[in-house]
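In the design runs reported in the main text, the only information available to the sequence generator was the tokenized backbone. The following block is the verbatim input for one such run; it is reproduced so that readers can re-run the procedure and compare outputs position by position.
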């Protein structure tokens, strides 16, 4: 009986041992895929808005009299100053008289050229010629534009009202032309519209941005994208966004703790600060010496206790 009891105890012990081994082989194994610690980073929270290159102010240059254009002294792209003569026009009466004198002879033509001079048209402001509408010899009315002038080229964007709080006059922004996506240039916000517009059921405000240095290829009508910094912080203690999850409305990270006996992983609620889309500042809930991890739980395959020889 004693021998039988001893065998039962030994058998039970072996069964328990086998059960523990099998359970251990089949239980999930927590594998660390990635880990990180709080690291100081310069974070910039940015958003992009598409807009376009346009003239800040553009005005048509018309003739004060109906008649014929005699000479245009400027071309598209030329810089002009206020008061500079940009074209000459003959009134309908002068054009008829000059044509009649020319039919008589060259001397008569020259004499009337001196007596009855054409009318000069001057630039009303400093700027440049953005468009040439007519050519010499064409007849025009007082309602037709011969040239169009612009004072400067700027970038105009429509800002959603939800982002309005990030926009201030004097703020600097980065921009690039869609035709040259790798060539950034800097601009400064010079005007924010006081009146809104409704575009596709979204309330927006027009913002005008003056480039500090214009690209040589700058042309009216080009599509431009602005990169506006909504917030920034240098040296923000942060971790990659991949380590942050959400549970019941709380931001959670997995923290690795180790002691002399075993390694453990515990979830921790954290308070977040600024984010640039890749990294996020941790305001509280995590110490600089602690490690956050990203786990991948894998099950070990059960090994057969019987091996073939």
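Verbatim output:
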């Amino acid at each position: 009986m004693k021998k039988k009891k001893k065998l039962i105890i030994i058998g039970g012990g072996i069964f328990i041992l086998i059960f523990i081994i099998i359970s251990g082989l089949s239980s999930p194994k927590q594998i660390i895929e990635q880990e990180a610690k709080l690291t100081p980073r310069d974070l910039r929270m940015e958003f992009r808005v598409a807009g376009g290159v346009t003239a800040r102010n553009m005005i048509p240059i018309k003739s004060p009299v109906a008649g014929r254009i005699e000479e245009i002294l400027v071309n598209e792209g030329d810089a002009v100053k206020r008061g500079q003569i940009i074209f000459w026009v003959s009134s309908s009466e002068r054009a008829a008289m000059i044509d009649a004198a020319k039919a008589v002879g060259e001397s008569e033509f020259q004499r009337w050229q001196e007596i009855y001079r054409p009318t000069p048209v001057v630039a009303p402001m400093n700027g440049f010629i953005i468009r040439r509408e007519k050519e010499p010899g064409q007849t025009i009315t007082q309602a037709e534009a011969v040239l169009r002038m612009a004072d400067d080229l700027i970038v105009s964007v429509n800002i959603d009202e939800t982002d309005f709080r990030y926009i201030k006059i004097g703020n600097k922004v980065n921009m690039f032309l869609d035709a040259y996506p790798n060539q950034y240039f800097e601009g400064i916000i010079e005007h924010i519209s006081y009146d809104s517009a409704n575009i596709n059921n979204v309330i927006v405000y027009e913002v005008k941005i003056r480039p500090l240095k214009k690209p040589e290829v700058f042309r009216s009508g080009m599509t431009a994208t602005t990169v506006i910094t909504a917030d920034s912080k240098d040296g923000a203690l942060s971790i990659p966004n991949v380590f942050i999850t959400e549970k019941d409305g709380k931001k959670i990270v997995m923290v690795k703790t180790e002691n002399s006996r075993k390694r453990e992983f515990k979830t921790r609620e954290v308070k977040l600060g600024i984010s640039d889309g890749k990294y996020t500042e941790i305001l509280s809930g995590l110490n600089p010496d602690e490690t956050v991890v990203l786990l991948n739980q894998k099950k070990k395959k059960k090994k057969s206790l019987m091996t073939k020889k």
